[in-house]
Amino acid sequence: MGRQSEAEKAGLLLAAARYLNETLEPGRVYDRFHELLTDAVPHAGVVVSSFDAETGLISCEYAWVDGEKLDPAILPPLPLNREGGGMQSRVIVGGEPLLVNDVPEQVKQPGGVYYDVDREGKLRKVPEEGAPGVRAAMMLPVKLEGEVVGVVQLHNADTEYDEEQLELAEGLVGLMAAAARNARLHQTAQAEAAARARAETVAAAREHAARVLEAVGDGVFLLDDGGRVGFWNRAAELVTGRFGEDVRGRPVSEVFESWDRIADEIPVSESSTAARPVTLPIDVEGRELWLSFVAVHMPGGVVYAFRDLTVERGLEQAKSEFIATISHELRTPMTAVLGAAKTLLRTDIQLSPERRRELLEMIGAQGTRLTQITEEVLIASRLDRGDLRLDRERVVVGDIVRAAVDTMREHLPQSISLRVKGESNGATAIGDRNRIEQVLVNLIDNAVKYSPRGGQVIVSAEETPAAVRVEVRDEGLGIPLAEQDAIFEKFYRHDAHQTHVTGGTGLGLYICRELVRRMDGKIGVHSQPGVGSTFFFELPRA
Ligand code: ADP
Question: Are strands 287-298 and 268-269 parallel, antiparallel or unpaired?
Fold first, then answer.
């Protein structure tokens, strides 16, 4: 390549600037720089090194020797020699380019470390391992804002370099430095954008997870290693009645009063898949809750999730009590029926006609009781399932009262007098005739049952402006005020009555309430223990 005119040089540099800036990849910038050099400055090798002022190290970024591009990593980073030994160091310290046309002489001087690389990438330390096959070299500082940030080294095997070539090379290095910096800035910006996007994705995922935790039906809380509450979600607030802002940062034993007692019973697993739930009673704000807990270790603490099983637990208990009650209730009449039947079948004893009659009556009565119990259980379960259809017809309530009282009179003990007070004068209501009679029979049956010392039972029906009201009044045991609501709940039986009265499932009043409600009526009781009770129900007037 011949010598260029100033105009040619300017044109070359302009084209170079364009060409270098077309790429935003640092590696490609060096490739293009080398391509431009090929046309502008003859050379057998090019090495671009960067200099890091902080570490004081000079590291190879790009190397091309005798027609081969080499992996820059094979050239070990060299420490800067501030005393000026070594050509690269001299350029970095001085900031001025260097032109050397007697390289073998230069490398003999003490203070510098030189490497000679061949096209296979083999590295030789010079001069210990012999003189390099290089005659001329240029060292050009790479500057950014006045600071030297690297060195470009060009060398030639036989031809010398002159000042003009040096100048041109300097110009190209300047352009390369700007393009490389541009590319690096672009890369950094892209890396930052990618990191920001990743961080945003992670933050969004976290926020989503936090929102999910807020929304889940299970209570979730975090205990740090010091046993203090960190996270406390909405469901935890709903179950315990304690708000997040009150409990966060506090010891968990202030929230769950019996925590210290139960904590050991909750196994803390290492992964959520291995977590095994345990259900435990725990006191919160003076209430006993049955909570099912799972616990999983997390860095810095333990995450607990819990579910409120108090209602389920209560139902389980009621169910098992109910089964115990029912089996007891069924066994009593059945034993009586069996006993009576066996006696009647005996051939070895002579039974008087009265005795036979008594036994047969007992079988009849106990059989009726058995039917009643199974009937109650069936109706209660149909009411629960919601598949009990009720008629809506006009009914003369007085007629039903009379029918129910007549039915009940047949089985009354001697000590009870049952009567109807006043006539309802044909008051009509809307409802299901059979179900109204069932309610009434149930109330009269209770009135008799819970009057163990006998007394009067009075049934009345009267019209009010909006309803027809039926009352059943007794002079029996009465019900404490505190239990007057509870007796209408399923399976509920007043403890003290059990000693006086056997036989009962706790379903009767529940069935009455549900039937009356389904006829858009209401039911209730006024009672005084030891004095008596008045049960009433009202049905809409026709
Ligand atoms: P059961 O009679 O089968 O126990 P009920 O549901 O009919 O069930 O009644 C629930 C409870 O209400 C009874 O166990 C009893 O304690 C109380 N009770 C009902 N009727 C009366 C009454 N007339 N006098 C006193 N207590 C009553």
Answer: parallel
3-class secondary-structure state, position 523: strand
The residue among 80, 68, 141, 134 whose CA lies nearest residue 111 is: 80
Q: Is 451 in the pocket of ligand 1 (CB under 6 A)?
A: no
Q: Ligand 1 within 6 A of 468 CB?
A: no
Burial of residue 523 (CB within 10 Å: 0-12, 13-18, 19+) is buried
Kindly state the tokens that stand for 5. Answer: 């005119």
Q: Report yes or no: 249 and 224 within 8 Å, Cβ to Cβ.
A: no
Residues 78 and 446: their CA atoms lie apart, in Å, by 106
Q: What angle do CA 273, 279, 280 make, to 5 degrees?
A: 135
Give pTM, 2 decimals.
Answer: 0.49
Structure token pair of residue 134: 């290089």
User: In angstroms, what is the span from residue 493 Cα to ligand 1's centroid?
Assistant: 6
Residue 490 Cβ < 6 Å to ligand 1: no
508-518 and 353-385 are packed helices; what angle lies between their axes, rounded to 10 degrees?
Answer: 50
d(CA 214, CA 244): 11
Cα of 450 to ligand 1 centre, how many Å? Answer: 7
Identify the weakest region by mean pLDDT among 201-215, 423-437, 489-503: 489-503
Cα 56 from chain centroid? 53
For atom 12 of ligand 1, which residue has the closest CA? 487
Collect all residues with Cβ–Cβ distance below 8 Å to 434 and sequence separation of at least 6: 391
| Nearest of 294, 264, 258 to residue 277 by alpha carbon | 294
Q: Is the pLDDT of residue 49 over 90?
A: yes
Longest pairwise C-alpha distance within the chain: 151
Distance between CA atoms of residues 90 and 139, nearest Å: 9
Residue nearest to atom 23 of ligand 1 (CA): 447
DSSP 289-320: EEEEEEEEEETTEEEEEEEE-HHHHHHHHHHH
Ligand 1 pocket check for 49: Cβ under 6 Å:
no
If you average pLDDT over residues 273-301, what whole number do you get?
86
Distance 363 CA to ligand 1 centre (A): 25
Q: Mean pLDDT, to the nearest integer, of 396-410?
A: 92
Handedness of CA 329, 331, 333, 334 (dihedral sign): positive
State how far the alpha carbon of 332 is from the alpha carbons of 241, 310, 326, 361, 371, in Å: 46, 33, 10, 16, 13
Helix (H) or strand (E) holding 115: strand 114-117
| Cα dihedral across residues 102, 105, 109, 111: positive or negative | positive
Helices then strands, counting H and E runs in the chain, come out as 14, 22
Task: Kindly state the tokens that stand for 101.
Answer: 């046309």
